[in-house]
TrEMBL record:
The keyword Ion transport applies. The keyword Transmembrane applies. It is found in: Cell membrane. It comes from Muntiacus reevesi. Keywords: Cell membrane, Disulfide bond, Ion channel, Ion transport, Leucine-rich repeat, Membrane, Repeat, Signal, Transmembrane, Transmembrane helix, Transport. This is LRRCT domain-containing protein. GO terms for cellular component: voltage-gated potassium channel complex. Interacts with KCNMA1. Pfam families: LRR_8.
Length: 328
């Protein structure tokens, strides 16, 4: 009897033989699970979204009033643009800690809680453009230490505090165009050491002392603001349509410079001391005036008593009887 023959490459491994003997439904389980990521309402896909391999969840244009539920660590890209998300509550994306890109364009967004982006330490791109934001709370972007691109374009921002933007060491692109910014607060750009692209067009720049930090940054980074030559003043009248790049450092020499940290420390240290010294001086002066007034009154009373003692007493009458008869 001839022994069984095998192909030239040898007998099949035991694992392959085991897989060949398994029933057919086992082979279909893995493709079905992979396909479930791309269907709305699937186990791993956020609600009302369509997911694609690679972790992209497309929730665009679905009139969503809030961030959809079902976010998880498999989501890498979340497209929420063209919806109706008007507010972001605390921890709105806490379950999507691996998120790399977040698109919130054109939602009519008006309010963002200071802790809305907590848990997004890996986020690299954030688009908040074409919304209705008027202000941002301090610490809003503090958790986004890996952020590389931030767009706040086409909002209603009239002021952007350094505390709101915070320190973003990896940020390279910042879009602030088409807002209501008359100037940029001092220190706003200091926490962005790697910023290479700053877009600012479409803002009502007021060319006064408050614009000095921005003009200084533009002078020091001429290549990082591609629209710098088109940035013009809208006020005051005599400087209207003047380009921001035309102002040298000497143009702001009359402006009061902010105190250095050492000077601020001296002011804060001397402030309470000077207040207490002033209070003590006021009390001393008040006591002195009171003492002088009391001494003056005592002197007047003493003088009045001495004058009373010097006046003679009337005594009995000494008129003679003849004089009295004559008067009669």
């Amino acid at each position: 009897m001839r022994s069984p023959s095998f192909p030239p490459w040898g007998p099949p491994p035991p694992l392959q033989l085991l897989l060949l003997l398994l029933p057919w439904p086992v082979w279909t389980q893995v493709p079905a699970a992979a396909a479930s990521w791309g269907t709305p309402g699937a186990l791993d896909c956020p609600e009302a979204c369509v997911c694609a391999p690679g972790g992209q969840a497309n929730c665009s244009g679905r009139a969503l009033p809030a961030v959809p539920g079902g976010l998880n660590w498999r989501v890498r890209v979340l497209l929420l643009n063209h919806n109706r998300v008007h507010a972001l509550p605390p921890g709105a994306f806490a379950d999507a800690g691996a998120l790399l890109r977040l698109d919130l364009r054109e939602n009519g967004l008006r309010w963002v809680h200071a802790r809305a982006f907590w848990g997004l330490g890996a986020l690299e791109q954030l688009d908040l453009s074409a919304n209705q934001l008027e202000a941002l709370l301090p610490g809003t972007f503090a958790p986004l230490r890996a952020l590389r691109a931030l767009s706040l374009a086409e909002n209603r921002l009239a002021r952007l505090e350094p505390a709101a933007l915070g320190a973003l060491p990896l940020l390279r692109a910042l879009s602030l165009q088409d807002n209501d910014l008359p100037a940029l607060a001092s220190g706003l750009l200091a926490g962005l050491p790697n910023l290479s692209t700053l877009r600012l067009r479409g803002n009502p720049w007021t060319c006064g002392c408050a614009l000095s930090p921005l003009c200084a940054w533009l002078r020091g980074h001429p290549r990082h603001a591609p629209e710098a030559e088109t940035l013009l003043c809208v006020s005051p009248g005599r400087l209207t349509l003047s380009p921001l790049t035309a102002f040298p450092e000497a143009a702001f020499s009359h402006c009061a410079r902010p105190l250095a940290a050492r000077d601020l420390a001296v002011v804060y240290a001397l402030g309470p001391v000077s207040f207490l010294a002033s209070l003590a001086a006021c009390l001393a002066l008040g006591s002195a005036f009171t003492a002088c007034g009391a001494r003056h009154r005592r002197r007047r009373h003493a003088a009045a008593r001495r004058q009373q003692r010097r006046q003679p007493d009337p005594g009995p009458s000494t008129t003679s009887p003849a004089a009295t008869a004559a008067q009669a």
